[in-house]
Amino acid sequence: MKKRPSQQILLSEVQLFLAEKRTYFPLLRTGLAVFGLPLTILAFLVATIGYHNIFDIPWVATFSVVILALVSLIGLYVTY
User: Coil, helix or strand for 5?
Assistant: First the structure.
């Protein structure tokens, strides 16, 4: 005969699942916001390309791309 878990154990497992879910969703939201920020900045830079020449100061462009990539990676890490 198979032993069935008590109702109290099942209730505590459901509460644990809901607590993990409440913790995960804010973390997911934060990760997506951090990941989306560099994409927004990059889209702004591309949209205003007519007002500046990125090839005049290549170190600024390189620095910007590296920083944006790092922030995107942090966002992906938090989301994953």
Answer: coil
Residue 2 lies in a domain: no
Whether 68 is in a domain gets the answer: yes
Q: How far is CA 77 from CA 21, 27, 50, 57, 67, in A?
A: 18, 11, 34, 31, 15
Q: Which domain covers residue 42, as residue numbers? A: 28-79
For the chain, the domain total comes to 1
| pTM for this predicted structure | 0.60
Is residue 21 one of the residues assigned to a domain?
no
pLDDT at 77 over 80: yes
- 12-67 confidence digits (pLDDT tens): 888 888 888 888 888 888 888 888 888 888 888 888 888 877 777 788 788 888 88
The radius of gyration of the chain's CA atoms, rounded to the nearest angstrom, is: 23
E-strand stretches of 1-80: none
